[in-house]
Amino acid sequence: MGSVTLIGTRLAEAGEEFVYNGESSACEGCPYRDQCLNLTEGRRYKVSEVRNGAKTLECAVHDSGVTAVEVEPVPIRANVPSSVAFAGSKTSLAGPCPHTSCPSHEFCVPSGAEFDEEYRIDTVVGDPPHEHCELDRDLMMVEFEPPDDA
């Protein structure tokens, strides 16, 4: 079972993925803050269920309000050096990449992952979407297990 939290109604759809960014200054004094601020900052989640009968509550951050959903941490797809791309092993990202127009950029700099953390590889997906890495990195696409603290 996942965690129950409140998210903006525009995101409240089963299958929707998001990275939890933590508290906003607008959250100060909100009566619902304990229900909203209960995820791990910087982690990627997926809405698994919108709670039946949940009301839309006013929110200073989300213009259309918030509603109750169940979320689960999701694996993160990322490109890692081919030399360490083995299911079950731990590794970190190869490093920042300035080439934002590259088809692999979203996997070299994935939302919900940090460069200074190690992640356990759940699955080796295969070749990345680019044909040539501008940084001459030999990369493989993998899925990291969701972190334990998610």
Describe this structure in words.
By secondary structure, the chain is mostly beta strands. Helices cover 5% and strands 31% of the residues. It has helices at residues 33-36, 105-108, and strands at residues 3-8, 17-19, 44-50, 66-73, 76-81, 90-91, 119-126, 139-144. The chain folds into 2 domains: 3-73, no CATH class; 76-144, no CATH class. It is built from 2 helices and 8 strands; from the N terminus they run ββαββββαββ. It starts with a strand and ends in a 6-residue tail after the last strand. It is elongated, with a radius of gyration of 18 Å.
The count of domains is: 2
Approximate shape: elongated
- Low-confidence stretches are none
Number of strands: 8
Derived from helix and strand composition plus strand pairing, the structural class reads mainly beta
Strand residue content: 25-35%
Number of helices: 2
Helix-strand pattern:
EEHEEEEHEE
| Rounded mean pLDDT score | 92
Could you give a short account of the major beta sheet?
A: 4 strands, antiparallel
